[in-house]
Amino acid sequence: SSFSLKYTAPFLEGLSFKGVFSYDLNNFQNKNLNKPYSLYNYDSIADRYVPVKYRDGSGSMSQRARLNQYLTFQGYVNFDRKFGKHKVGTVLVYEINTLNREDFNGRGIYGDFYTTDVLEFATDQEFVGSSPRQEADISYIGRLNYSYADKYLFEVAARYQGHYNYAPSNRWGLFPMASVGWRVSEESFIRDNVSFLSDLKLR
Fold first, then answer.
1. How far is CA 64 from CA 33, 70, 82, 163, in A?
2. Contacts of 80 (CB under 8 A, 6+ apart)
3. Which of 150, 157, 160, 185 has its CA 20 to 30 Å from the CA of residue 168?
4. pTM of the full predicted structure?
5. Over the stretch 157-195, which tens digit does the pLDDT of each residue have?
């Protein structure tokens, strides 16, 4: 499930704010039961059914339960505006993602007598354990777009991200990018002479 809210600033043209919140919950339950049993083969000479054991020995049961909770928040500051032939677009983003997990698993062994498929009633609880987990990452993102006359394009962006999985000394990393573009189809020597070409951009 997600929820978003946007606010367009009346005091400055082109400025807006947006917040996005999402929460996802999933629950996984699994149970496996293995019981010793017999199949019967008919002996026509003796005129009787002969039991043949399958999965001989003790019965066992394994059970697992996992609960995952994902939380994401994104906050945006956007500015898009045109000044004559100049067009500027910027966005700043703050993002946080968290995971909270509860995980339980166990396995029980039954003796000669099977009672019910509940670990508590197993003769021997061979293994019972849990492995909770928590994760989080935070990102600061920025992007700037500039174009002149819709022909000459320039863009820079960067993400500064920290993740729980890494050691504190290596937890944060900067990931920049930049690009330039030229919309050749907007030049007069293309627009006026090559009618079949509607949009051509080099980047």
1. 12, 20, 58, 28
2. 14, 87, 88, 89, 90
3. 157
4. 0.73
5. 999 999 988 888 899 999 999 999 999 888 888 888 887
